[in-house]
Design a protein that fits this description.
Beta-Lactamase; alpha+beta; 5-stranded mixed β-sheet; Alpha-Beta Plaits; single chain; 5-stranded antiparallel β-sheet
């Protein structure tokens, strides 16, 4: 006997369990749509694999003349897989055995369906639906965990430049497309332990594990180059982003780290956008940059020379 479950996309069937002593009958079906029992949505029993109407996947087994019972698994109308059992042709399945297989399949389907539904709900609760990145709450949990473990990491706050202008001139659909493209560029640039989230609106936050500010600035340079290249190759409306960087060597609490990175982001904005700025520990004690921006809107329109990694290194050197 073997239990075959479909993947999340209901494209492929894979064996996930087999009889603990007798092993697996080795059914070669690999797609739910190719399984007779799954297609019909009802139990199918074959008395002899050599019969003309037998399932084609029964033929060619090492033991000819097999009897088989296939019980589909479903949960809330969704097909999950099939429970497949065989026996020698001279020992057909009794009604009580088929009934027990149906009971086992029902229990397996209920448990599997419940777990998958919980996983989907949990994923939806932690994911931004537009970009597929983590949402703000999920990233806050990740950051608190990093701080608790005491490891080094960088926090990058990113903001799409002139996003309101993009929405106003090309429409909200173009704005949503820009957010998705930026999210895809982020996901393609992250390592296994790194995390990225859509923080809200056109703002994103990235956690680079085992990375301090100068390395994070180099990562941002590569991300900006990647995004510009992908937009140009696909002939899509160009947009740029600004970045503020902080790291765990500056402070050890999430609120202060975000304040430092956010203030550095606004510094990058004030210097002309499409660049990165590294924050300083004292930024954590300064005014909220968003409130300052409301009081002095001209700051965000100021221009200045492009910041390179060399400039960032000089900017990050200790004073005095």
């Amino acid at each position: 006997m073997q239990l075959l479950l479909a993947d999340a996309g209901a494209v492929e069937l894979r064996q996930v369990a087999q009889h603990p002593t007798a092993g697996s009958p080795g059914c070669a079906v690999r797609s739910p749509s190719n399984c007779v029992a799954v297609r019909r949505g009802s139990t199918v029993t074959y008395a002899d694999s050599d019969q003309l109407n037998a399932c084609p996947y029964l033929r060619g087994r090492q033991s000819p003349g097999l009897a088989a019972t296939c019980v589909p698994l479903s949960f809330m109308g969704r097909s999950l897989g099939v429970l497949h059992a065989t026996s020698p042709g001279d020992t057909p399945f009794r009604d009580v055995v088929v009934a027990n297989l149906k009971t086992l399949a029902f229990a397996a389907a209920t448990r599997t369906g419940t777990v998958r539904a919980f996983q989907r709900t949990q994923l939806q609760a932690m994911t931004d639906s537009l970009t597929g990145l983590l949402n703000r709450r999920a990233l806050e949990i990740e950051m608190h965990d990093l701080i608790r473990r005491g490891g080094e990491f960088s926090v990058i706050v990113a903001d799409l430049d002139h996003f309101k202008r993009l929405n106003d001139t090309l429409g909200h659909q173009s704005g949503d497309h820009a957010l998705r493209r930026f999210g895809e560029a982020l996901k393609g640039s992250l390592r296994a332990d790194d995390r990225a989230a859509r923080w809200g609106g056109e703002e994103f936050v990235v956690l680079l594990v085992g990375t301090l500010a100068l390395q994070a600035a180099e990562w941002v340079d590569r991300l900006r180059a990647r995004l510009a290249s992908e937009l140009a190759q696909n002939g899509q409306p160009a947009f740029t982003s600004s970045f503020g960087i902080a790291d765990s060597s500056m402070v050890r609490d999430s609120v202060s780290l975000l304040r430092i990175a956010d203030t550095a982001l606004y510094l990058a904005k004030s210097r002309g956008r499409d660049r990165a700025s590294i924050g300083r520990p004292e930024f954590a004690l300064g005014p909220d940059p968003r409130q300052r921006d409301k009081a002095e809107p001209a700051n965000r329109e100021a221009t200045g020379p492009q910041l390179t990694v060399a400039h960032l290194r000089a900017h990050h050197e200790p004073r005095g």
